[in-house]
Amino acid sequence: MKTIEVIQNILEANETIASRNRQLLNENGVFCMNIMSAPGAGKTSLLLQTMKLLKDKLNVGIIEGDVASTVDAEKVQSEAQAVVQINTRNMPESCSLMAAMIESALKSMPLDNIDLIFIENVGNLICPSEFTLGEHKRVVISSLPEGDDKPIKYPLIFVDADAVIVNKMDLLPHVDFDIGNFRSSIEGLNPKAGIFQLSCKTGEGIEKWCSWILEQIETNVTKQ
Amino acid sequence: MQSTLIDSMHELGITENIVNIALAKAGEAQASSISKINLVIGEMSGFVSDCIQFYFDSLSKDTIAQGAVLHFELVPAQLQCRNCSTIFTPKDTLWSCPECRGRSVEISRGRELYIESIEVE
């Protein structure tokens, strides 16, 4: 019997592909954001509202991850320059997108003609936190009906986020959601994350969020 | 068990990685079989060891890793307070510092996910 020392990160294979994706995006001047949330928090609605405001300024591509169906891809089709749908049902991972899926989706994206890609991850607060995809920024959406305790229950996804969105603010009078408690949980876990309170239904707060995106793109271009 | 599996399908992908890494290392060492794989998994990493074992048994079939024992070293979560630097183990889901009650904390341990070593014949 012999012991072989290994010390190898089990996620290394995913991380290698993710950095290849990032390089491809950078070579083509494409900024990429990974949008994560529980099912129903408003990922698709946020993308629709965001594209409405940004489509005159930027060509936006969408990569849709879903366990099954193309309903989200159909919804965003009219606003986006290009949409690629990934169904994870028959893949080894069905609870999250992984870097290899993005690598193949990027092959179907007209990268020359795209400024910004939103990856709409599978609705899940646990699995996507472990897999980087090659994105420049990670965004987590929480919505008021989910309750203000989500950062405490699912800390990892919030710890790594660059921005946290609180959606469905129009429901505030109707639900027991303590905004102060939510914000202080996020500020404790991840003081660097930007927090955006908005409503995709009324449009409140969307402009501020879109300005943040434009700033991030600008900063990224200057850095390269 | 059933519900754990449904919630935790990302274990399938990482178990594939475990099998691939172990087979590659055993191949380099010209080993004839793998008897044990020592894994280090952080409590916070969100991976369920029972699931990894379940997938491992089927993925390692007909390879030199078939029948290998998976040994999990589970690393408990450890947090550090950003205000007073106290290192502590979270007692409940509310991560507040036992010294200063501050809620600004950093995860210092508990996100590990790696293969430490393999034992081969």
In short:
With 224 residues, chain A is of the alpha/beta class.
Explained architecture:
The complex is a heterodimer of chains A (224) and B (121). With 224 residues, chain A is α/β, with parallel strands linked by helices. Chain A has one domain (12-216): P-loop containing nucleotide triphosphate hydrolases (Rossmann fold, 3-Layer(aba) Sandwich), CATH 3.40.50. Chain A has helices spanning 12-27, 43-54, 71-76, 99-107, 150-153, 155-159, 179-189, 206-223, and strands at 2-9, 31-37, 60-66, 82-87, 116-120, 137-143, 163-167, 194-197. In chain A, strands 4-3-5-2-6-7-8 form a 7-stranded parallel beta sheet, with helices on both faces. In chain A, strand 7 (163-167), helix 7 (179-189) and strand 8 (194-197) form a beta-alpha-beta unit. The longest helix of chain A has 18 residues, at 206-223. Chain A starts with a strand and ends with a helix. The mean pLDDT of chain A is 93. Chain B has a domain at 2-75 and 111-120: 2-Layer Sandwich (hypothetical protein PF0899 fold), CATH 3.30.2320. Chain B has 3 helices and 6 strands; from the N terminus they run ααβαβββββ. Chain B has helices spanning 2-7, 10-28, 49-59; strands at 34-42, 69-75, 78-81, 87-88, 105-109, 113-120. In chain B, a hairpin with a 5-residue loop joins strand 3 (78-81) and strand 4 (87-88). The chains are: A alpha/beta (224), B alpha+beta (121). The interface between A and B is large, with 37 and 42 residues. Strand 1 (2-9) of chain A pairs antiparallel with strand 6 of chain B, so a sheet runs across the interface.
Topology:
The complex is a heterodimer of chains A (224) and B (121).
Chain A: E1 2-9, H1 12-27, E2 31-37, H2 43-54, E3 60-66, H3 71-76, E4 82-87, H4 99-107, E5 116-120, E6 137-143, H5 150-153, H6 155-159, E7 163-167, H7 179-189, E8 194-197, H8 206-223
Parallel strand pairs in A: 2-5, 2-6, 3-4, 3-5, 6-7, 7-8
Helix pairs in contact in A: 1-4, 2-8
Chain B: H1 2-7, H2 10-28, E1 34-42, H3 49-59, E2 69-75, E3 78-81, E4 87-88, E5 105-109, E6 113-120
Helix pairs in contact in B: 2-3
